Amino acid sequence: MNKSKLIENLAQAVDLPLRKAEEVVNAVFGDMEKALIRGERVEIRGLGSFKVKKYDGYKGRNPKTGEVIDVTPKELPFFKVGKELKERVDIN
Fold it and tell me: Which CATH architecture describes the domain 3-89?
């Protein structure tokens, strides 16, 4: 599912115009993004949690040339699936 399909499903589920549903989805995602930028953790019960992970820099290698390069430290968003979702998806 992509964002536009999510908007369509929301509009149908609660009988909203597409524009309103898009505003709602954008507001939710926007608030989540702002929280992550501030370094906060975002938890959605039954789904999982998002946080920003810090990665140290390291020496890497260009796979084409074999040249050693410095990879700078970075911060990236990380999602950890919640127990409930993990159990619902794992049908084994």
Answer: Irregular (4.10)
